[in-house]
Design goal:
The chain has 154 residues and is mostly helical. It has a single domain (6-153), classed as Butyryl-CoA Dehydrogenase, subunit A, domain 3, CATH 1.20.140. Helices cover 74% and strands 0% of the residues. The protein contains 8 helices and no strands. It has helices at 6-15, 17-28, 31-48, 55-74, 90-100, 104-115, 120-127, 131-153. The radius of gyration is 16 Å and the shape is globular. The chain starts with 5 loop residues before the first helix and ends with a helix. The mean pLDDT is 86.
């Protein structure tokens, strides 16, 4: 079993960090939650040090779990606030608003598969879901997302 250390976590931060952070903003609709979740995942990864085998996968997983936990604690019902993302094109804001209309699980699955590039099996492992459950959330989320985006065009 291969282990990794601080250098590997730093590489994830530099190479995948911006993508993970953007995925967290899209998932949570909140820049502060994305910042906190990503920072917490990095801190935990550094604390684990040589015990991590795959720091990228681990950081994705932990950051989404931290963000989900924070969303649950806040019981966030308010819509995405445009002013939280500076200089974001209107098309991106429409997508972020549409993502916020999905359930948290649908949103996580859709973001991880379409943006993160993870397979159904990988998303299931990251989120602790069975593959059939991931497929259902993905299918329903995609349909809801498509309807929402089509409605915003009209």
């Amino acid at each position: 079993m291969k282990t990794v250390g601080r250098d590997a976590v730093e590489r994830v931060y530099l190479t995948e960090g911006p993508k993970i952070w953007r995925a967290l903003v899209a998932y949570s609709g909140d820049v502060d939650i994305a910042n906190d979740a990503f920072a917490e995942a990095l801190a935990q990864a550094l604390a684990r040090g040589e015990d991590l085998r795959d720091p990228a996968r681990w950081i994705w997983k932990v950051s989404f779990r931290v963000a989900a936990g924070e969303l649950g604690r806040r019981n966030r019902q308010d819509p995405f606030v445009d002013s939280e993302v500076v200089e974001t094109p209107e098309l991106v804001l429409d997508l972020l608003r549409a993502l916020q209309r999905l359930t948290p699980r649908q949103r996580a699955v859709v973001i991880l598969q379409l943006y993160g590039g993870f397979t159904t099996a990988e998303v299931g492992a990251l989120l602790g879901m069975a593959e059939p459950t991931v497929r259902v959330h993905f299918s329903q989320g995609r349909k809801r997302l498509r309807r929402s985006l089509e409605a915003s065009d009209g």
